Amino acid sequence: MQTTHPQAAPAPQFGLAALLWTTAAVGMALAYLRGFGTEACVAGFEITFVALVVGLIVGKSTGRVAAGIFWSVVGAMFGYLSAAGAPVIDPALRYAWGLVGCASAVAVAVSWPQQLARSLGIGALAGGAAMLTFLLPFVYFGAVSNGEWRFDLLCAPLAGAWMGLAVVAVEWAERRTPTPRYIAAAGLMLAVIAGNLVGGVLFPWWA
User: Fold this and answer.
1) Which pLDDT tens digit goes with each residue over 95-117?
2) Alpha carbons 15 and 174: distance in angstroms, whole number
3) Can you tell me whether residue 147 is helix, strand or coil?
4) Predicted structure pTM score
C-alpha cells in the first residue's frame, strides 16, 4: 500500500524576512541618497515609482508579475545609485541610468528560459535602447552637456549586460541554495553604495 505525505505549504513570497531585508535595502539607499540632499531622495522615489509601474505592466503582459516588479525596482535603484554619487554626471543623465537599470533588469527577468549569453544580449539591448530613448529629446533640445551623452550611450549596453548577469546569477543561486533573492539584492545594493564610496576616495575628481 502506498502512503502519501502531505506537502508542506510554500513559504510566503513576502514574509517577515522579506519585509525586513527589503526595509534594510531601502533604508541603505535612502541613507546614502540623503547625503546628496532632499532632491536626490525625491528623485529616488520618483524613479522607484516609475519602475514599479513598468514592472507591473511588463510583468502582467508576460505572466511574471512578481519577477517583473521586483527586478524592475531593484534594477532602477542600482542604476540610479550608481550615478547619484557622481556630481560630474549631468542631473538628467542620473534619471537615464535609473531607466537603464530598470529596463535591462526587467527585460531579463521576464525572459524565459534564462540562458547566460541570451540574457547578456537582452540586457545590453534593453539598456542601450533605454538610454537612447531617454536621450533623444534631451540631445535634440540641448538639455544635456554637449558630448557627455555619447559616453553614457556607449556605456549603457555594457551596464545592461552586467545587470542581466546579476539577474541570472541571483535567480540561479535562489533555485540552488536557500538564499532568497531579496537577501542577494540587498547585498548587491550595499556593494553598489560601497563601490561609490571607495570610488570617491580613489578618484576625488569623480565624487
Assistant:
1) 999 999 999 999 999 998 788 99
2) 16
3) coil
4) 0.81
